[in-house]
Design brief:
Layout (H helix, E strand, L loop, with lengths): L1 H36 L8 H9 L2 H32 L5 H51 L1
């Protein structure tokens, strides 16, 4: 198991984080295109509008909140491998230990690099939902006059 982790850990962690990044960008662009093409007059109920506007935002939020955990899991496994290697060797070399720990931390950094833009994009899209909803309410008020 350790040999498998040593060989594939970076590919697994960075592959998952890459997939999360791709999905986040896909959903973000999908939402932006949807907002751009949106016709407010087509909606007659605020709940229907809310459901249409917030579709896929949960995915972006989920990616933003879970990417650090994926990175942290990669770091924990990287540290585990480092400690295993220390336990298996007859000598303790501080340079090798520090190198192993430093390399393990790159997974956490990558997770944070995925999470930060995801949360910023989510918050921006959520604000756009609020603005569109306010415009729809204003349109409804003008139609009732």
């Amino acid at each position: 198991m350790i040999e498998f982790l040593r060989a594939w850990l970076d590919y697994l962690v960075f592959g998952i984080l890459g997939l999360m990044s791709f999905l986040m960008l896909w959903f973000a662009f999908e939402r932006l295109i949807y907002f751009w093409r949106l016709r407010l007059a087509e909606f007659d109920h605020p709940e229907t509008l809310g459901i249409a506007l917030t579709r896929n935002l949960t995915w972006i939020s989920t990616i933003g909140s879970n990417a650090p955990y994926v990175g942290l899991l990669g770091t924990v496994f990287g540290i585990l491998i480092t400690f295993y290697d220390i336990g298996q060797s007859s000598t303790i070399e501080p340079g090798a230990i520090m190198t192993g720990l430093a390399l393990a931390l790159k997974a956490t950094a990558a997770g944070l690099l995925v999470a930060s833009p995801s949360i910023m994009i989510y918050n921006g899209l959520l604000r756009r939902v609020e603005v569109i909803t306010a415009k729809w309410k204003r349109l409804q008020d003008h139609e009732t006059l």
